[in-house]
Design a protein that fits this description.
Keywords: Methyltransferase, Transferase. GO terms for molecular function: methyltransferase activity. This is DNA methylase. By secondary structure, the protein is of the alpha+beta class. It has one domain: Jelly Rolls, CATH 2.60.120.590. The longest helix is centred in the first third of the chain and has 14 residues. The protein starts with 10 loop residues before the first strand and ends in a 7-residue tail after the last strand. It binds 2-oxoglutaric acid. The site of 2-oxoglutaric acid has 12 residues, from strand 7, strand 9, strand 13 and strand 14.
Length: 196
């Protein structure tokens, strides 16, 4: 999945997409500027607190339904306004929203899922920027679950997921017992206009 040898040809990891000092400054700004909240999600028929803090950010009209709940977008914080154009250039897509997640320590995590909500359309481009503590990011094939692989998402790295990545693979960010610094992840997305 790195630039030389790909386990998924349509998922590309750019380890040092941001320089360390720029990534440090962005992390500090996001911790201060984003209105972090606990999202309630539906799991196995029950509403539970998501084990991380989150914020759905976007242009007007980019309401998003995931894990059984609907989220209306918060406005873009100043720290993301300039970054947005650079993400668009890297992804080749005009992103109009971003899910920001804060993993406070190794107990915060994200379970198996694909970013395949109808609002994203078929074959969505997702640009995932990681800041702070390094965490494992794991992929499992949706129809052949024995096919799994993982990558480390480091401070300043950008993971671009395109093509059939969401249709063919699930991903997760597992818990860890290892002491790990706080991590912020930003998954930039393009929500398509409603057709009805
Ligand atoms: O934290 C991450 O790296 C991924 C988060 C994610 O997959 C999601 O929120 O959909």
């Amino acid at each position: 999945m790195n630039n030389s040898a790909g386990a998924i040809p349509e998922a590309t990891l750019f380890p040092d997409w941001l320089q360390a000092d720029e990534a440090d400054a962005l992390l500090a700004a996001l911790l201060a500027q984003v209105p972090w909240e606990v999202h309630r999600i539906r799991m196995f028929g029950r509403w539970v607190d998501s084990p991380r803090l989150s914020c759905w950010i976007g242009d007007p009209g980019t309401g998003y339904v995931y894990s059984g709940a609907r989220f209306e977008p918060r406005p873009w914080p100043p720290a993301l306004q300039a970054l947005r154009a650079r993400i668009d250039a890297a992804a080749g897509v005009a992103m109009n929203s971003v899910l920001a997640n804060l993993y406070r320590d190794g107990r915060d995590a994200m379970g198996w899922h694909s970013d395949d909500e109808p609002e994203l359309g078929p074959r969505p481009v997702i640009a995932s920027l990681s800041l702070g503590g390094t965490r494992r990011f794991v992929f499992k094939h949706r129809r052949e679950p024995a096919r799994k692989f993982e990558r480390l998402l480091e401070h300043g790295s950008l993971l671009l997921m395109t093509g059939d990545t969401q249709a063919d693979w699930k991903h997760a960010l597992p818990r860890t017992a290892r002491p790990v610094p706080a991590r912020v992840n930003l998954t930039f997305r393009r929500i398509l206009p409603r057709t009805r």
